[in-house]
Specification:
Elements lengths: L4 E2 L10 E8 L7 E2 L3 E7 L5 E4 L2 E4 L3 E6 L6 E4 L8 E8 L6 H4 L5 H9 L4 E2 L2 H14 L5 H16 L5 E2 L3 H4 L8 H13 L6 H8 L3 H12 L3 H19 L4 H7 L5 H12 L3 H10 L5
Parallel strand pairs: 1-3
Antiparallel strand pairs: 2-9, 4-7, 4-9, 5-6, 5-8, 7-10, 10-11
Helix pairs in contact: 2-4, 3-4, 7-8
């Protein structure tokens, strides 16, 4: 497998952020990573295919996604989009723009949570897009740089309040640590992260958490938003997706090494949750990779 393109962005060390607005009919930039955070807005791009980690989705007419800098590969590719004029606004900013001391202040608490979630890619709701649209619309043309930064900060703050924003990549694929979690939940997640290929029983995890099985089941769903079985499957699929992208290991071997005991069930579950069969998923990422 070839490496993902590591993009060197145009962001200057003297600037708070870099912004560019484009009108395009084709999406040609390959799957890539970079150190900077990226907020990407697309208008009239229905049918464009968004890839963030192991998440592959077709977007609608309006798209706004925040991706944290680091190893999370991402791209927007042509997909089924046939629009002759798609508008794209890309904002990139350094992870060092906001210091840890600043993010620890109460006024920045929601922004900090948003930046943490962006390690998996964070897609914003239509309501949030409409709330920041006018500021995004004029941000690139705001003449005063200080005013421009204030508008940018307000955009981030408004987006951080979006209760319907959803993460995209699976945590096991993105290899992202979970922070600020219940001690019991973290203990269980740490165990699953190591033993996902084994038979992981709810009763055993309840014992690990010091709870009854029924109480643990309710507790787990309350803190993760998913039932226990679905969470374990997602962890297995995330690791399988990582192996499909990063290795040439056979699909059958990946199936069994990630905790699935039936190849047809693995293929069916993978397609249901990722939208592609494992073979097509691997081909999609291979096509979008370049040698560097």
């Amino acid at each position: 497998m070839s490496k993902v393109l590591n993009e060197i962005t145009p962001l200057s060390e003297k600037d708070c952020f870099y912004i560019v607005e484009r009108h395009k009919s084709e999406f040609l930039f390959p799957l890539h990573t970079h150190e900077e955070y990226e907020l990407n807005f697309i208008e009239h791009g229905k049918g464009v295919r968004r890839i963030v980690g192991d998440s592959v989705e077709e977007i609608g007419n309006y798209e706004l996604t925040l991706v944290a800098g680091g190893e999370l590969a991402h791209a927007w590719e042509q997909g089924r989009c046939t629009a002759p004029d798609v508008r794209e606004i890309t904002i990139q900013f350094s992870p060092q723009l906001f210091t840890s001391d600043m993010l620890a202040r109460n006024q920045f608490s929601s922004i900090k949570k948003m930046l943490d979630r962006a390690r998996l890619g964070l897609n914003f709701s239509m309501g949030a897009i409409m709330k920041v649209y006018s500021r995004l619309d004029t941000l690139a043309t705001t003449p005063d740089r200080f005013d421009q930064f204030l508008h940018f900060l307000k955009i981030l703050y408004d987006l951080s309040l979006d209760a319907d924003a959803r993460t995209l990549a699976s945590s096991s694929y993105a290899q992202a640590d979970q922070q600020l979690e219940s001690r019991r939940i973290k203990k269980v997640k740490d165990y699953i992260a190591v033993h996902y290929a084994d038979q992981v029983r709810l009763e055993e995890m309840a014992l690990l958490a010091g709870m009854s099985a029924s109480a643990f089941s309710r507790f787990f769903k309350q803190h993760t938003g998913r039932n226990f079985v679905d969470y374990v499957i997602d962890i297995r699929l995330g690791n399988a997706a990582r192996m499909l992208v990063d290795t040439e290991t056979g699909i059958s071997e990946i199936c069994y090494s990630c905790g699935f005991n039936n190849l047809s069930n693995f293929n069916r579950t993978f397609k249901a949750r990722r939208g592609y069969t494992p073979r097509d998923f691997r081909a999609l990422f291979t096509k979008n990779r370049v040698f560097v």
